[in-house]
Specification:
Elements (H helix, E strand, L loop, with lengths): L1 H15 L3 H4 L1 H13 L3 H8 L2 E2 L4 E6 L2 E6 L5 E2 L8 H13 L9 E2 L11 H15 L4 H10 L3 E3 L5 E8 L2 E8 L8 E7 L8 H16 L20
Antiparallel strand pairs: 1-2, 2-3, 3-4, 5-9, 6-7, 7-8, 8-9
Length: about 240
Amino acid sequence: MRLNRFQVQREQLAAEGPHKWLATLAPKVEQWRAALIARDPQQVAVLSGTALSDDRTLRIHLWDKEYSVAWRDGIVRNADGTPARTDRQALVLMYLIAANGAVPEYRWLRYRELPGGLFYAQAFHSYAERRLAAAFHNQPVAFAHAAVSAGGLRLSFGNSEAFAFTPLPRIRLAAVLWAGDDDFPTSANILFDAASTHYFPADVLGALGSQLVSRILGVPDDVGQTLTALAVQPPVT
């Protein structure tokens, strides 16, 4: 009985892992802004693979949306000039601060192979990979169509349907669906380019992986305060 209680507690802690970085974003965003604008914008642009305009405004794509970051204040803004959602600001700022010039290696890692990913691998499999497999059970053609619609580029990956995605300039993720048969059920993997670990820790990459699954499933970007939508609510004061 003691072992069972331990296992339950461990699974609960693991399931909370992807939320860890979300819980404290709002107070940290201001710190990240200050850290970013203290750096040389030209160097940041080169290291992050982004574009810098003459007015010291950096432009960057996160998934299919373009954002701008003006060096006068470090605020990440939408295309219409309004401040981006807190989670989007956090992702962009973390990426730019961590940028060290590492380019995609095209060497794919499973979540459990990421530094620090083993502990949360079971939870990630449940909220991302298992969700993807269940949605496209024995429907590889439907999966391929949905992946292309979400911006995926086809990969050659054994006897599977596989597509690569670029959520940020030097971050690569892949979604892979293995069609089931009479002997084996449909299964799915979300893979991460090895270079992605230069930019984000495992919990943030797990959040991106969950976002990818939601995009393939056609979940609206602004749905609720959920992990799959990654909308962040500022802490109540």
